[in-house]
Amino acid sequence: MSVEDEKIEKARSPFSEAFEMFRRNHAAVAGLIMLILIILAGIFGPMVYAGDPFEMVWAPFSPPGQEGYLLGTDYLGRDLVSMLLHGARVSIAIGLSAALITVLIGITVGAVAGFYGGLVEEALMRFTEFFQVLPTLLFSMVIVALFGASLPMITFAIGVVSWPAVARITRAEFLRIRELEYVTASRASGVSNGKLIFGVILPNALPPIIVQAALMVGSAILFEAGLSFLGLTDPNVVSWGQIIGSNRQYILDASYTVTIPGVAIFVTVLAISLVGDGLNDALNPKLRQR
Amino acid sequence: MKDELLLKVDNLSVRFAVKRGGGWRKKSYLYAVDDVSFEVERGKTLAIVGESGSGKTTTALAVARLVPAFQGSVDLEGEDFLTLEGDKLRQARAKVQFIFQDPYSSLNPRLRAEAIVREPLDSLGLAEVDEKRAIVDRLFKAVGLRPEQQRLFPHQFSGGQRQRIGIARALATQPELIICDEPVSALDVAVQAQILNLLRRLQEEFSLTYLFISHDLGVVQHMCDSIAVMYMGKIVEQADRLSLFNNPLHPYTVALLSAVPSVDKKRRKATRRVLIPGDPPDPVDPPAGCRFANRCPVAQPRCSESEPPLRDVKGGHRVACHLVDESAKSPMS
Q1: Which tens digits make up the pLDDT trace of B61-104?
Q2: Which of A148, A169, B64, B156 is most buried as measured by Cβ atoms within 10 A of its Cβ?
Q3: Which of A181, A186, A195, A286 should be substituted to probe chain B, the one whose Cβ sees the most B Cβ atoms within 10 Å?
């Protein structure tokens, strides 16, 4: 009886169990702490470390550590610390919102295709494949070049080229789950199609989608860096990729101007990947109790 | 109240399109259920038995509108369940509930037990919010679960307990008909008996009507009033329980019954083990005559030429076999 009572006491939801799993994964927790620090730096850094990142504050190409400028200055004599902090905001914001766009489009297309099947699925998946076979960087460059290099447009471009992966995962999960008996049971209970898709199947399909979304944030940051490196960025806004892009001519003379933002991108994407892997292990029941 | 007809299924067929080979070849169809008719009286249990692939589960799913029927009608209290659409269909689903085979996949792992049982009430708007609690409490009690177990998630229950949750869910809408699709075949023997007893007790308590699908004649023997035997999508024999068990007519039924282990000495002596060789023929392209002819130990040439109709041979005992005549003697004896 007491064992039974204890079980009831610990009547935890599958998600809280996943959280417990995640907490025990040291690498993932380390990644999460790094990520939180980076996000906090992005939010509060520019307030604490005041100053316009575009302002020339010191002689150009002064290496890190001189005259109180911790990370030195770039080719226009701008303070790299200030640029890095402002850039964190932009890079992470773009990463998150591009991932959000990706997930929204991907889930909608994948869920409808996987749930209804037949011609609907056929049409939607051909549509998805059309996006998937386009070279992603080139396609997003075309969008940005055509519609202007504003931040929302860059975010949109990244989202539009990367949703097919989420759509395919969602569809695959829907195809699997819709055949399970509890979905049939819900249908027999008179649950409507909309509720079946979003209330019954989607919550059970979420784990791999969450993992994919987390990794998507990382790849969106890389994507933005790639676009800014090629100069397809809003020149009035600092982002990490843009710092690298604008300093790339001086890579041999002042390598730190490129290295420092590069390391920032590397560390952020690494942290996101660790968190993503941790989520994967925590949410994938087959790996539990390993 | 007695002998009142609840469910009347007429000429029900379910077919699935199958792609054979590649290219642009014509689609062919697999008739999982082929022209099946049966009736169930209120408060009674009809069992449908047959081997895997015989179409018994598909029949059950089609009756409950969970797979689309190709043709036929499912008359429930004078209304054709198959022609309902949209909201009317959703509301009518309250009358037909389903108990599933696999208690491990029939409960949504994200919901607490209480929410699973409440789902039909929620989606059909059958009760006021404050009534729902009381209803769920009563259902938990009726199926032998403790009230504090309502907070648990499916993975915290054993197989038998999960099946009890499934039964409570099926009872929630106070259905006219409960379709039990092999409700105990995934459970071990001791638990099987508990669940079967529970189903029988509930039938008495709430005067339920069951359509009971099973491959296990031993289980069926304890549960049903009448039995329909299916083979390759067709009913080959249909009778009340006693006639079928004491006087099986169709060679396939005879073979099935001989496979039921029995401690009854008389019966054990009477039935020698009948082995049927081979496999069922290709269901996409069934043979012209009797579908059992290629495995039947007493088959004659005419069996592969024309298909025997299902006909009444003796007071409601119906069989589809050329070799059974009016004397209602099995060709196997």
Answers
A1: 999 999 999 999 999 888 888 888 888 888 889 999 999 999 98
A2: B64
A3: A181
- Pairing state of beta strands B177-181 and B209-214? parallel
Close Cβ partners of B291 (under 8 Å, ≥ 6 residues apart) = B231, B232, B234, B280, B281, B307
Distance CA A222, CA A231 (A): 14
Q: What is the pTM of this model?
A: 0.82
Strands (DSSP E) contained in chain A are none
C-alpha distances (whole Å) from A11 to each of A40, A288, B43, B155 are 34, 18, 38, 10
Cβ within 8 Å, pair A182-B169? no
Name residues 82-141 of chain B within 8 A of A (Cβ): 90-91, 93-94, 96-98, 100-102, 105-110, 112, 119-120, 123-124
Give the separation between CA A243 and CA A46, rounded to whole angstroms. 16
CA B85 to chain centre: 24
B124/A189 CB distance under 8 A: yes
> What is the percent of chain B with per-residue pLDDT over 70, rounded to a whole number?
93
> Closest Cα of chain A to B111: distance in Å?
8
- Out of 1.10.3720.10, 3.30.70.120, 1.10.10.10, 1.25.10.10, select the CATH number for domain A37-287: 1.10.3720.10
The dihedrals phi and psi of B40, each to the nearest 5 degrees, come to -130, 130
Q: State the complex-level ipTM.
A: 0.85
Q: How far is CA A13 from CA A19, B153, B155, B169, B297, in A?
A: 10, 7, 10, 20, 56
